[in-house]
Amino acid sequence: MQARPIDRRRFLAGGVSILGGLALAPRRANEPRERRAPEATLVLVELSGGNDGLNTVVPLGEKGYSAPRSRIALDPASLLPIADGRALHPRLVCWQQIWKEGRLAIVEGAGYPRPNRSHFTSQDIWYTARESGRASGEGWAGRLVAELFPDDRRVPHAIHVGATAPYTLHSSTHPVVYLDLPPAYRWALSGPAIAASARDRGAEGGGPLERIRSVARGAETSSAEIRRAVARYEPRREYPDVPLARDLRTVAALLQAGIGARVLSVTQTGYDTHDDQPRRHEVLLRELDASLATFFEDVRGTPAGDRALIVVFSEFGRRVEDNASQGTDHGTAAPMFVIGTAVKGGLYGKHPSLEALDQGDLVFTTDFRRVYATGIGSWFGVDPVRVLGAEHAPIPFLS
C-alpha cells in the first residue's frame, strides 16, 4: 500500500512538489546555496503495508511461533542467526553482516497503546507520534525541522524521494520537497495553485504575489541544486536495479551534496501480505536487504554518511496466526531497525510474548516514540518533549 500524500494544496513541478508554509527567505535563482559541513541527518525508510515482524526477526525455539503458522513458518535451518534466540529471514544476508559489524540495532515489540489495525489511522499515529493522528497537527519530523530551523524556512530541510510524501514531514511553516524522478525535477507554478495560495495566505504580511515569487526563487534554486547533485553523483557501490535502491541512491546523492537537508525519506510498498506471503515477503526483504546495505556501504566512511542515522519502520506488524491464503492479516507490534556508523548494534526492548496474546495479536513492549525521542535528543540535540509533546525514555542504541 502506498503511503498517503500530504493533504495540502500543492505547488506542482513535474516530478516534484513543494508543500508547507510559504514564508520562505528569498534568494536569487542563480545564487547557489552555501555548502554546509556535514550535520546529523535522519534517513527514514518506511515499509508500507504492515511488515510481518515475526518472519523478519524470528524467535527461535518458541512453541508459539511454528504452531499457529503452519503455512508460513520459516524453516529453522534456513534462518540467519544473530543472537541467542533470534534469527533473521534468510534473505537478510547483508543485514546479518551489518549486525556482525555492530551497526544494526533491533528494537523489539515496537507499537503503541490501544493499537489501531487500519492502515491509514495507524500510519497517521506513526507519522505524528500522537494517538489522535492528523487531528493533532503536523508530522513529527516536520516539527523537528521547525525546531532545528526556527528562522530558516527555505527548502530543502526535508526531502522525500518518491511519488507522495508521508505526513511525517508535514509542516505548516517549513516546506517539504518530494520528488519522483530527480532528473525531471522542474519548477512551475500552476494557475490554480497560485490562486489558492493567494486566498489562503492573503492575511499574512508581504502580499501574496511577493510570497509566491519568494517560493519560486527558492524552489528554482533548489531544483537546480538537486538536479546537479543527482547528475554528478558517483556512488562508491553499484546499486541494484530496483525501485528502493534507486530512491536510496538519490538520497545518497542529496546527502553527499551538502545542500542542508536534515531529514530524508523513502518508502517501500507492498507489505500488506494477506495472501501468498512467503513468496511476496521474500521478494520484499531481498530488495530491502540489498538496497539498504548498498546505501550504507556507499555512504559510510564519508563525513556526511557517518552523520546519517537510518530508521526503518512499518505502521504495524501482522497477526501471529496465518490465514487460509498463506498470508497474515493486520496485527500490532513489530520490530524497528536502526542502522548507522554511530549505532551500537544489538537487541533492544523485549520480544512480545507469543502466548500472552491480545485477541490473537502481540502486545507491544516498546513505545515506538522512544526511538524517535532517542534520535531527536541524542542525535539532533533537540529537547524531545518540544517535538513529541511528552516524555519518552531514550533507548541506548547510539554511541
Descriptive keywords:
399 residues; alpha/beta; Alkaline Phosphatase, subunit A; 11-stranded mixed beta sheet; 3-stranded antiparallel beta sheet; 10 helices; 30% helix
Per-chain topology:
Blueprint: E1 11-13, E2 16-19, E3 41-47, E4 57-59, H1 63-66, E5 80-83, E6 86-88, H2 93-100, E7 104-111, H3 119-128, H4 140-148, E8 158-161, E9 176-179, H5 191-200, H6 208-232, H7 243-257, E10 263-268, H8 277-299, E11 308-313, E12 334-339, E13 346-349, E14 366-367, H9 369-379, H10 384-388
Parallel strand pairs: 3-10, 3-11, 7-13, 7-14, 8-9, 8-10
Antiparallel strand pairs: 1-2, 2-9, 4-6, 5-6, 7-12, 11-12
What would you note in describing this structure?
- By secondary structure, this protein is α/β, with parallel strands linked by helices.
- The chain has a single domain, classed as Alkaline Phosphatase, subunit A, CATH 3.40.720.
- The chain is 30% helix and 16% strand.
- Strands 1, 2, 3, 7, 8, 9, 10, 11, 12, 13 and 14 form an eleven-stranded mixed sheet that branches.
- α7 runs parallel beside α8 (277-299).
- The longest helix is centred in the middle third of the chain and has 25 residues, at 208-232.
- 51% of the residues are buried.
- Mean pLDDT is 85; it is low at 1-16, 20-33 and 186-205.
